Amino acid sequence: MNDQAIAGNHPAQKLVSGLAEIRSNWTSGQRRVAKQLCKKLLTDFPNDGDLLQINGLICNESGEIPEAVKSLESACNSPSPKAVYFTDLAAVLANAGYEAQAKPVLQEAVKRFARDGKIHLQLGLIEARGMGTRNAIPHLKRAIALAPDDWTAWSAMGVVLLSLDDIEAALQHLAKALKYAMAKGDKKAVSDIRISIGECQKELGNVKEACALFEAVLADEPHNIRAWHCLTLATKVPQEHPARAVIYDIYQSGRYQTMPVNEQEMLLFSIGKVEMERKNPDAAMKALNEANKTKRQTITYSPTAIEDMLEHVRKCFPAERFAHLGPIRHDADEPQHIFVVGMPRSGTTLIEQILSSHPEVFGAGELDTMVFHHHALIEHKVRNGRKREDVMKYDDDFIHILGQAYRQETLGRIKRIQAAGATDHPPRRIVDKLPSNFTRAGMLALMLPNTRIIHCRRHPLASCFSIYNRRFGGVQNFAYDQRDLGHYYNTYESFMDHWRDVLPADRLIEVDYENVVENLEDQARRLIAFVGLGWDDACLDFHKTERQVRTHSALQVRQPIYRSSLKGWEPYVKHLGPLLETLGLDESGNPVSAQSKRAS
C-alpha cells in the first residue's frame, strides 16, 4: 500500500482503535478514563454516531443526564444513524422520567427502522409504563413477529396482559418467554419470568404456588429484590428466612442506594411491611418515609391540577343533567352495571367480593375500560375537528357513545372469561370496582340506564395510612407524600359532596368500611337490596368465593372479616404529623376544632 493510501486510512484507524480503547476502559470500570478518551476523540470525530452513542451512555452512567441526551440526540442526527442510537436515547429519557419525550424518539425510529423488533419492544414497554397499557399490545405483537424467539417481547406481553387482568393469556406468553430464556441460558431472565408467573398465580388465588416460585428464585439469588418484595406481599416472611439476612444487610449497609430506583422502592416498601408485621413502628416508618420520598422524586404531581380538573367536572354535571332520570328498574336492560368507587384502600375490594359472591353477580375487578374509552373518545373527536374545550363539556352525544363502547367491551370481556371457565350463565349484575371512577360518577349515572354507584368510605387516617405504606403498580401519584395524600383526600371528599347533592338516591349509595366490619350481615343485605337482587347467604361467606382479585387487598378478601385494620394507623401516628395537619385531625383521629387550631 502506498503512502497516500496509508495516510487516507489513518483517521479511520484512529477512530477504530480509539473506540476499542474507550470500550475496554468502560467495561473494566474505568469510567473516568473512558470519558476523558471520549472527549478527546470527539474533537477529531464530532459527528461519528458510534462515538456519540458511547459518550452518551457513559454520561448517563455518571448521572449527567442532559449531557447524555445531547450526545445521543447528536448520534441520532449523525450521517449514518443506527436503530440502537434511538433506543438508547429513549431509554435514557424514560429512565429519567421523561417518557413523554421518549415516545416521539421511538416513533421516529419506527419510521426509519420499521423491521427492528427492539424499537417496537421498547415503544411497547414505554406505553405499558404509562396510561396507555393497551397501546403497548400492537407494538409488542410486532416485536414478537419480528423476533419470535426473543424472550423479552414474550415476557413484556405477559406482564402487560397481567396488568390488564388477562391472566390466562399472560401465563401463556410467560411460558413462551421462559422457554426461550432457558434455551439461551439467561439466568437473570429466567428468574424475572418466574417471578412474573408467580404474580399471576397470586392473582388467581394460588398463593402457595406463587410463594414457591418466589422462594425458588430467592434460593438461587437471595439478593433478588423483586422476588423478596413479591414474597412479602404474598405472605408474612419469618425472621429466620434465609434471604432476610441478605436483604437486611443490603438495606442497613446503604448499598441499595446505588441500585436502580425501582429496586430501591421495592426494597424500602418491603422492609416497611416486614417491620410493621414485627410491630416495630419506628423502624417501619423510617423505611416507609424513605420509600415514599424515593418514589415521589420520580413522578410529577400537582395538587392544584387535580382541584382544577374536578372543578371542571363539577361544572359539567349540575343537578339539571340528572333531572330526567326516572326510578331504577331492577329487571330491565340486564345485565345492569354497578360501579364501586372511592379512595384506594377504602374497602372497594371487600364490597366487590361480597357482591360477587351472589350467584347472579359477576365481579369484573378494576377495569380500565372506562378510563380508556373516556380518553380515546376525547382524542377521536379532537382529531376529527372538534375543539378540545368543547369536547370536554361532555355533552349527551359524548355520554351516549361512551356508554355504548363501555358496555360492548365489558360484555365481550365477560363472555370470553365465562367461555374459558366453561360457563355461559349470563349475570344480572356486573361490578366494576375501579376506585378512581368517583371522578366520573356523573358520566356513569347517565351513560347507561339503571346504573348504580356504590361509594366506599373509610376513616381518612385509615385509608391514607394504608395507601402510604404500599407501592402501587398503577398511577397513584398523590400517594407518596403525606401532604399530597392529605390534600388529595380532602379534595376527593369535597368532590363527593357534589355527587351526593345531585345524584338521585337510587343511583348512589354510600357504605362505610367500619360499618361493614362491625355488622357484616346488615350491610351486605343493604347492598344486595340496593342492586335489586334477592338475598343469598353466600354473600356472608365471601372469603370462600373463588375468583381473580388483583389489588393490594387480594389476600385479605380471601379471609373472614377482621377488625385489626380499623385503627391500624394508631401505632404510627407520631410519624404522621404532616398528614394529620393536612387532614385537620388530632392524634386520636378526631377533627381539630377551630378553637384548637387558633390556640396552636
From TrEMBL:
SUPFAM superfamilies on file: P-loop containing nucleoside triphosphate hydrolases, TPR-like
Entry-linked Gene3D superfamilies: P-loop containing nucleotide triphosphate hydrolases, Tetratricopeptide repeat domain
InterPro entries in alphabetical order: P-loop_NTPase, TPR-like_helical_dom_sf, TPR_rpt, TPST-like
Pfam families: Sulfotransfer_3, TPR_16, TPR_6
Keywords: Transferase
Source domain of life: Bacteria
GO MF annotation list: protein-tyrosine sulfotransferase activity
UniProt-recorded name of the protein: Uncharacterized protein
Organism: Thalassospira profundimaris
